[in-house]
């Protein structure tokens, strides 16, 4: 949380508290304990927005259950912003509601989860946006069957285990291409292939388009500014529980500024009808 504690005040956001908890946190009796309840007890009187970084989705559900037990999720006065350092699984859009390792119990459990999730915004890395990425995945899969890998995926696919080329492969491809372009620029400027300083300088502070189609920025310190999408619960009759988790906005870099761009025709379904106050009334 250290970076967030430094970053948020720069944008006018006061950090009231910062806590950590040991994970994994299993919310199943009798091994469930009070570590999340203790955090809530120490913070709820002067906090309305919780930034929560769960290791697993079931930890988010456990945190929401403890907030609800305190009576904090009844009126939409509190919100949880959950940060996931991964890409959202679009093939399982209601899975974050139902739960996998900590499934909701029966219709009442599902109804409870749906109510909880109206108090939550979720941040995930933005998924691939380019149709060319599908071609990249097909080509990458084909390379696996060639030397030096010689990997035959046919048997696994016959058994129902298809080989999935994830976006991690795209990031590796991007890294190699960035290096190759920086090396080419260094050589064209009369530099040497062994001069790492010059090569790195031709990588820093640059904007590039990932093979996924997403525009990315490498800042002067070599950090990549992530493309992040905002997700929330949405009513959708395609699910057997009538609700799914869908993207509602994206954070984009425009002229050096991070901009919140809401998706057209999609609204956040706030429990109280509007965003909660950032701070309780005196």
Automatic annotation (TrEMBL):
It comes from the Eukaryota. Keywords: Membrane, Transmembrane, Transmembrane helix. One of its GO terms (cellular component) is membrane. Transmembrane segments: none annotated. The keyword Membrane applies. The keyword Ribosomal protein does not apply. Residues 10-235 form the Receptor ligand binding region domain. Its main location: membrane. It is found in: Membrane. This is Receptor ligand binding region domain-containing protein. It comes from Strongylocentrotus purpuratus (Purple sea urchin).
């Amino acid at each position: 949380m250290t970076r967030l504690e430094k970053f948020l005040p720069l944008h006018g956001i006061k950090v009231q508290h910062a806590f950590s908890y040991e994970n994994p946190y299993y919310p199943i009796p009798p091994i469930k304990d009070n570590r999340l309840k203790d955090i809530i007890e120490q913070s709820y009187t002067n906090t309305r927005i919780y930034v929560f970084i769960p290791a697993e989705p079931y930890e988010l559900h456990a945190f929401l259950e403890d907030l609800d037990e305190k009576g904090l999720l009844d009126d939409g006065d509190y919100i949880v912003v959950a940060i996931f350092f991964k890409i959202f699984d679009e093939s399982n859009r209601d899975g974050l509601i139902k739960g996998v390792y900590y499934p909701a119990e029966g219709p009442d459990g599902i109804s409870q989860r749906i109510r909880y999730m109206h108090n939550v915004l979720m941040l995930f890395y933005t998924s691939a946006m380019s149709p060319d990425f599908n071609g990249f995945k097909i080509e990458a899969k084909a390379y696996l069957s060639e030397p030096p890998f010689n990997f035959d995926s046919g048997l696994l696919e016959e058994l129902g285990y298809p080989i999935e080329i994830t976006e991690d492969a795209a990031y590796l491809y991007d890294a190699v291409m960035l290096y190759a372009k920086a090396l080419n620029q260094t050589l064209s400027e009369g530099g040497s292939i062994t001069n790492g300083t010059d090569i790195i300088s031709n990588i820093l502070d640059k904007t590039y388009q990932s093979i996924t189609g997403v525009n990315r920025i490498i800042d002067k310190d070599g950090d990549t500014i992530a493309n992040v999408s905002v997700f929330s619960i949405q009513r959708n009759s395609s699910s057997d529980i009538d609700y799914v988790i869908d993207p509602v906005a994206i954070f984009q870099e425009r002229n050096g500024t991070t901009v919140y761009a809401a998706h057209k025709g999609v609204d956040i379904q706030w429990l109280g009808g509007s965003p909660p106050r950032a701070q309780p009334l005196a």
